[in-house]
Write a structure and sequence with these properties.
The complex is a heterodimer of chains A (218) and B (231). Chain A has 8 helices and no strands. Chain A is mainly α. Chain A has one domain (2-216). By secondary structure, chain B is mainly α. In chain B, helix 1 (5-23) runs antiparallel to helix 7 (193-224), helix 2 crosses helix 7 (193-224) and helix 3 packs antiparallel against helix 7. The longest helix of chain B is centred in the middle third of the chain and has 32 residues, at 69-100. Classes of the chains: A mainly alpha (218), B mainly alpha (231). Chain A binds chain B through residues 140, 143, 147, 150-153, 157, 160-161, 163-165, 167-168, 171-172, 175, 196, 200, 203-204, 207-208, 211, 214-215, 217-218, and chain B through 64, 122, 125-127, 129-130, 132-133, 136-137, 140-141, 146, 149-150, 152-154, 156-158, 160-162, 164-165, 168-169, 172-173.
Chain lengths: 218, 231
Amino acid sequence: MIYRIWALFRKDWMLEMRQQYSFYGVLLYVVSTIFILYLAMEAPDYQTWNALFWITQLFICLNAVAKSFLQESRARMIYFYTISHPVEYMLSKMLYNVLLMFIMTTVSLILYVAFMGDPTEHLGQYAAISYLGGLGLSLVFTMLAAIASKAMQQASLMAILGFPVIIPQLLLLIRLSKVAFAETFRDGVVTQVTLLLLALDAAIIVLSVILFPFLWKD
Amino acid sequence: MKRSWWKILSVVLLVYTVIGGLLLPVPALPQLQETIRNLYFHVCMWFAMMILFTISVIQSIRYLRTLDLRHDIKSGAYASTGVVLGLLGYATGAIWAAYTWADPNSAAYASFGSIVREPKLIGAAMALLIYFAYFVLRSSITDVDKKARVSAVYNVFAYAMLFPSIWIIPRLLPSLHPGQEGNPALNFNDIDARMRLVFYPAVIGWTLLGVWITTLKIRLILLTEKSWLHA
């Protein structure tokens, strides 16, 4: 099973390498968003910086992950249907999207620090939290992309479906990332929130594995 | 007559709620005073809403297990009645907040921004947004079977994500709202014994009313869609 997930993952990766427009499309989206933010305001205070960073992450994820199901043509889906198992297919998509989101997180973090300065006390910690956030965001939106790909007006629908679901995670992340600005927390809160986020991620994976086979049958 | 006992029960309980809720004694608390009577209406709306949403999810799961379209229709109908109850919950809450939380020195709407940043309100907003999205999703798919399957999957997924968040958010944000730890009014120490006499019947009464409205709606849909449902 792991081998087949790997094969599907490699298929996605090679497709991306061959037709690079979507990867560079998202990359350009990241760069231009942050550039516009930079032009719109100079040296925001750390609360604004943090809020803007997470909002950017949210929209980057929406754009990066949306492609994963929408780009597959109907004929190709039928082909996958005959050769692979839905759970493997879903897990490979999740793996791929998490990796893509990690790359985008790295890029946007570098650009944020470059354009808008580095208000954090512990940049390494902030980076770790933003990867944790990228993981959660990409998992949720993978499932929602799978749902939205069955409907019309997929791109806007994904935002509608996703935002109410993502609010708690985003709030937790914004709160957690204040650790990196040297805000003091009560003992144990940081590990507690981190574990909570990981537990949420695990719950999303389990739910998607259970629910995706129902979407698969068409 | 035999099968409609719960409808009679609902009417009896609601008559009791309105009369008892307005006339029976309540503790006179500072700030709240007589507005506490709104508990019998406002909190019950949220209870009934959550119960109806839960029924909607159960119907979605049953649809996924059986692929019987009647379950899908039920799921949609329970969700829409739940949304109506949620809106009523906001309306009753807004009236209550206008007399208790709002700054009395300025117009009530001037306090809107500070009142709305409130964990319980955010949780409720999330629940309503999820079900609005659910309706948008339903209306954006034309094929009946596909619509039923996709919306059932979203219903289960979103509901499962909603619950941890309702548990998490109150612990992240400061709140004026009673019932900081968990569910307001369920905790036995939160609520005066005299008020429990009205409150619990009120919850049951409003919930039964919600179910009653929904069953009527389901019957109507089943009748209008009869031509293809049994085909």
